[in-house]
């Protein structure tokens, strides 16, 4: 590696760029095409759309989705000079760099590393404060067609987030399958 390239890599910093929401991917691709066209790749590192992968259980099916951590923003690792600033600013959909007094401000290395590391993190379960139900617990239904009914827990499916509640209809116990959020302890 030449000394010039090594010096450029050392002077690369992470910058945050405001872009049009819901166009982050197309704007990222446009910036990458412009870098290639203008042969300025030596001045740029990664361009990141900060997302995290989340596991969601919907209707008993496990689904992995990506959620943007900072909608409407891109993180760009680059050497900031007139050419690179002009290249990024003149891509359709780019607003401006974040900073003060009209000057772009670089993220500190710890902040940038934390965001990039989160990109590569393992899929995580969403944080929810779900109640813990046990067989025989008395519960009250607080949503749906049986709102206001009380019953007894007959079964629990933690992976699907569902609970089977025995309620009395026409003098007989009838099982009703509900999601955790539809019931509360009585």
Features:
186 residues; alpha+beta; Alpha-Beta Plaits; SH3 type barrels; 5-stranded antiparallel sheet; 39% strand; rod-shaped
| % residues in beta strands | 35-45%
The SSE string, one letter per element, is: HEHEEEEHEEEHEEEEE
Q: What value does the Rg take, in angstroms?
A: 26 Å
Low-confidence stretches: none
Overall spatial form: rod-shaped
* Sheet with the most strands: spatial strand order: 12-11-10-9-13
CATH fold annotation of the largest domain? Alpha-Beta Plaits
**What is the number of independent domains?**
2
Average pLDDT figure = 82
Task: Give a brief description.
With 186 residues, this protein is of the alpha+beta class. The chain contains four helices and 13 strands. The protein folds into two domains: 3-119, NusG, N-terminal domain (Alpha-Beta Plaits), CATH 3.30.70; 138-185, SH3 type barrels (Roll), CATH 2.30.30.30.
Describe the fold and architecture.
By secondary structure, the chain is an alpha+beta fold. It has two domains: 3-119, 2-Layer Sandwich (Alpha-Beta Plaits), CATH 3.30.70.940; 138-185, SH3 type barrels (Roll), CATH 2.30.30.30. Helices cover 23% and strands 39% of the residues. The chain contains four helices and 13 strands. It has helices at 3-11, 24-37, 82-89, 109-119; strands at 13-19, 44-48, 51-58, 61-68, 73-78, 94-97, 99-100, 103-104, 138-141, 150-157, 162-169, 172-179, 183-185. A five-stranded antiparallel beta sheet has the order 12-11-10-9-13, with no helix packed on it. A four-stranded antiparallel beta sheet has the order 2-5-1-6. It has a two-stranded antiparallel ribbon with strand order 3-4. A hairpin with an 8-residue loop joins strand 9 (138-141) and strand 10. It is rod-shaped and about 80 Å long. The N and C termini lie far apart (69 Å). The model has no long low-confidence stretch (mean pLDDT 82).
């Amino acid at each position: 590696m030449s000394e010039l390239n090594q010096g450029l890599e050392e002077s690369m910093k992470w910058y945050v760029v405001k872009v049009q929401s819901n166009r982050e991917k197309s704007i990222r691709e446009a910036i990458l095409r412009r870098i290639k066209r203008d042969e300025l790749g030596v001045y740029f590192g990664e361009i990141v759309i900060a997302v995290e992968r989340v596991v969601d259980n919907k209707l008993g099916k496990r689904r992995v989705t990506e959620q943007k951590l900072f909608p409407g923003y891109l993180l760009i690792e680059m050497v900031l000079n007139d050419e690179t600033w002009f290249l990024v600013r003149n891509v359709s959909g780019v607003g401006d760099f974040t900073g003060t007094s009209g000057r772009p401000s670089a993220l500190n290395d710890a902040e940038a590393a934390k965001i990039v590391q989160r990109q590569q993190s393992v899929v995580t379960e969403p944080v929810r404060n779900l109640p813990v139900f046990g067989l025989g617990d008395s519960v009250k239904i607080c949503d749906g067609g049986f709102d206001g009914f009380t019953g007894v827990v007959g079964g629990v499916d933690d992976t699907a987030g569902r609970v089977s509640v025995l309620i009395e209809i026409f003098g007989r116990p009838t099982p009703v399958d509900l999601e955790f959020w539809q019931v509360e302890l009585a």
